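Re-running Malic enzyme to confirm reproducibility after the cluster update. Everything else is unchanged from the original entry.
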Amino acid sequence: MSSTAAKAKQIFRVRLRGDAIMNSPRWNKGTAFTLEERKAFGLTGRLPYRVNTLEEQCQRAYDQLQMRDTPIRKNSFMQSMKEQNRVLYFELLRRHLKELIPIIYTPTEGDAIANYSHLYRRSEGLYLTFPSQDSMEEDFLEQIKGRNIDLIVCSDAEAILGIGDQGVGGIGISAAKSALYSLIAGINPERALPIILDVGTDNDQLRNDHLYVGWPEKRVRGKEYDEFIDKFVQLVRKHLPHSLLHFEDFGTSNAHRLLDIYRDQHAVFNDDIQGTGAVTLACIMSAIGVTKTKLSDQRIVVYGSGSAGHGIASQIRDAIVTMDNLSKEDANKKFYMLDRFGLIKESLGPEKIRGSLREFTRPDSEWQDAKTNDNGEVELVEVVKRAKPTILIGCSTRAGAFTEEVIREMAKGCDRPIILPLSNPSRLVEVDPEDANEWTGGKALLATGSPFPPAKNPNGKDYIIAECNNALIYPGLGFGAVISQARKISDSMIIAGTRRLASLSPALKDPDNALLPDMADAPQVNYEVSVAVAEQAIEEGIAGVNWKKEEVREKLKEKRWEPVYGTYVYDPEGQD
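Result of re-run:
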């Protein structure tokens, strides 16, 4: 019997009846309640006569979805479905994965978050607000009462999906990321908790909006902010010691700092840093498999050195150290980092270089005769001309920053330039991949952060643009850590998952194919990532389970949650 069939035969003892069970997204089956269940739970007169299968419900729901004429309306429809029937929501997503991920996640979720207070209908997750911190533990315990929580996804919403500070609307990204853990990796949604850490907002438009539902004050910073975050993290450590704590869309000034503080205290993961770094590294490993070079052979320009750009550089650097046995100092020399002050070099001074970026600082002696702008900054085109990079990565959210001059100049310096314009949403991409393909004569190896159509090569063949989407790896990294009850997420666990993803690249079989697997294959891909991560945790001795590595694959199959209806038995002492 398949695992799906076995899970469909599960029996649940439920104490909710009548409207209560139909208003519970966890237990509601809608028209799929059997005749026996309708009688037992007092639903016979509350439902029309015919009993539908889950497949029939999906067909009806998909037809209704297609009537919505804009992505934001489709997002709203899916949100409403999640609030009504959890199994139907996830099964519909599973059947139309590639089409609907951009609806419930980037780019459409960004629009939903920006309009959160005006679209608000019903709360989801946990809202921990700075002025209510005295009751934080009470509120936290109330939310997790009677639940076994494996995953917490939290955000302070300072840097949401390329659209900046969104205040309390950041609960939307916590919920979306949590949903992808369930959809793609198999974490039971009942065991996941999205949280917004509402510490105010510096978004004047939100604070001045009389319909804004968050705390309408300037964003808290400094010692008060750190104490609030620490209070929250210590609650997680105290009450959910085996959970995974996922940090999402924290601002540049806090993201790396908080990860460094807590990564050895708990299983902590920052997707913007580690997830973005891991999927980009996998993409690059695939590309160098095509070019038949080593990671340590590369010259890498990162344009945009915020959380994502720095995370990518750190992840690639650590892989160079691990895989090619370079020292950290020598590996750092492979990078040219740019931010709003241009190339990060010594003469910028400490006031313009964040502490975590200093290890990538270039010496001034390399750039004494470099062309600069009116502010004395070395701009991207000059860096490309002089450094002759083999890899160009964009995390800047500056649309069109990779100009024709930049791309053509890069193509002069290497046979197969690796060009990764990763900014989201697609309107903010540094270069349209079709243009990059044309300007390099079809030589470029390309991937983007959002979906793009294929580009035409000079021979008329389609070149598939890989989507360098965190969803190809972070759910598997997290589930592997959760299922193995790892005490922390080590760098080697992340590299193990990254290597497994890279090994699945279509380009390794056909160099003209995509650098990463298709998003439609994300569940199977993340299963493989989970296996690699859990095996590594066991090998390192930081897993909390007593398994052998050979058992991991079957254990994961058994424990993956799937969107199927079980059989319900009414029991006044059962679950609610």
